[in-house]
Design brief:
Blueprint lengths: L2 E5 L2 E4 L4 E8 L6 E8 L6 E7 L4 E3 L7 E6 L4 E6 L8 E9 L5 E3 L3 E6 L1
Parallel strand pairs: 2-11
Antiparallel strand pairs: 1-3, 3-8, 4-5, 4-9, 5-6, 7-8, 9-10, 9-11
Length: 117
């Protein structure tokens, strides 16, 4: 079994920065996708950024140029550096890992990010 624990969320002013971390425990297949999804109340969960074990990244258009995803495969940890934060970035951010090729996914409990305008 795999568990993921997010940290680094908090309250920041618009234009500020936060760095989220997600540490995974348990055995994760070497081929996988780790990333961050976010969700506001009443809205669907949406992709923010993902990164494969091979280094390929995918960002939502709304965060391109402001967010940077990185990962440490040896530590099974993924990070999300969030700069130039906007009020629209306010959400619960969830860490996820999806094993390949069958697509089994695991989710963290989420960390709240609140950006004041």
């Amino acid at each position: 079994q795999v568990h993921l624990v997010e940290s680094g969320g908090g309250l920041v002013q618009a234009g500020g920065s936060l760095r989220l971390s997600c540490a995974a425990s348990g055995s994760i297949f070497s081929l996988n996708v780790m990333g961050w999804y976010r969700q506001n109340p009443g809205k669907q969960r949406e992709l923010a950024a993902t990164m494969t074990s091979g280094g390929s990244t995918n960002y939502a258009d709304s965060v391109k140029g402001r967010f940077t995803i990185s990962r440490d495969n040896a530590k099974q940890t993924v990070y999300l550096q969030m700069n130039s934060l906007k009020a629209e970035d306010t959400a619960v951010y969830y860490c996820s890992v999806r094993e390949l090729p069958f697509g089994k996914s695991y989710w963290g409990q989420g960390t709240q990010v609140t950006v004041s305008s």
